[in-house]
Amino acid sequence: MTEQRLSDFLLSHVDLYGMDGANRPSKKDQEARFFLAAIAVELIEAREAFTGEKFALYEKALQNEPEITEGEIDRVVSCRALQSVSGMVKRLILLSKLDGIHTPSDQTSLYIREAARTYVHGFMQASAAMSRAAVEQALKEKTGLQGSEDHIGFKELVKRATKMNILDPTAADQALKHVAYKANAVLHHGPADNETTLRVLDAARGVLRHVYGM
Predict the structure, then answer these.
(1) Distances from the Cα of 103 to the Cαs of 85, 95, 142, 171, 203, in angstroms?
(2) What are the backbone dihedrals phi and psi of residue 118, each rounded to the nearest 5 degrees, phi first?
(3) Would you list the domain boundaries of the chain?
(4) What fold, for 95-212?
(5) What Å distances lie between residue 96 and 104, 105, 173, CA to CA?
(6) How far apart are the first and last CA of the chain?
(7) Distance, CA of 83 to CA of 34 (rounded, Å)
(8) 149-152 long-range CB contacts below 8 Å, 24 or more apart?
(9) CA gap 128, 146 in Å, rounded
């Protein structure tokens, strides 16, 4: 018998309606809860992207009843977080261990960690961007160009790293074709799926293994 996952257990015990009587929500309670949940969703969306004038009504509800409205936002965010745990665990397991002989700078470490975390949390566009940024930061660090005021494109940076034997031809090709090119495609030609983003992240991690494993 498969043991129930903690996230599923917690989600099954979330009180979505406000219970009444013998553990059953009354129709009035359900209608009120659904109405409040709708307001909470609209308030969340109003803070994540551009919104129209209609959201002024929901903002007023937040001002007039902050405890009730904030409580409902908490409920919606909590449910979303619990529902996403299963996917996060599956994506995390897909990642291999990242190690090397040398340790990257704090900044490079931060970038590649954020690339992995955004992938695990399902933010594919952000992960692709951070994967590219991590490789770029690592190459600037190793070529001594970190902090330089001169703007150097990614292709030129890879070229310099290759001349300095920081990258071999295979790693250089991976950095250009499988990190920079695919990351740019993700960012400029529409949302990426899980598989595409994982390939970009894996390629970036492979380049970093090469850079810091020599």
Answers:
(1) 30, 19, 12, 18, 18
(2) -65, -35
(3) 6-85, 95-212
(4) Four Helix Bundle (Hemerythrin (Met), subunit A) (1.20.120)
(5) 18, 21, 21
(6) 47
(7) 18
(8) none
(9) 21
Tell me the pLDDT tens digit for each residue of 103-128. Answer: 888 999 999 999 999 999 999 999 99
pLDDT band at 26 (very low <50, low <70, confident <90, very high): low
- Reported as a single tens digit per residue, the pLDDT across 177-204 is 999 998 888 888 777 788 989 999 999 9
The DSSP code sequence of the chain is -PPPPHHHHHHHT--SS--BTTTB--HHHHHHHHHHHHHHHHHHHHHHS---GGGHHHHHHHHHSHHHHHHHHHHHHHHHHHHHHHHHHHHHHHSPP---SSPPPHHHHHHHHHHHHHHHTT-HHHHHHHHHHHHHHHHHHHHT-TT-SS---HHHHHHHHHHTTSS-HHHHHIIIIIIIIHHHHHHHSS---HHHHHHHHHHHHHHHHHHH--
Partner residues linked to 22 by β-bridges: none
For the range 183-188, what are the long-range contacts, defined as Cβ-Cβ under 8 Å and sequence gap of 24 or more? 183/128, 183/129, 183/131, 183/132, 184/132, 186/124, 186/125, 186/128, 187/125, 187/128, 187/129
Of 126, 143, 103, 108, residue with least CA distance to 200:
126
Give the span between the Cα atoms of 111 and 183, in whole angstroms: 15
Report how far residue 65's alpha carbon sits from residue 34's, in angstroms, rounded to the nearest whole number.
16
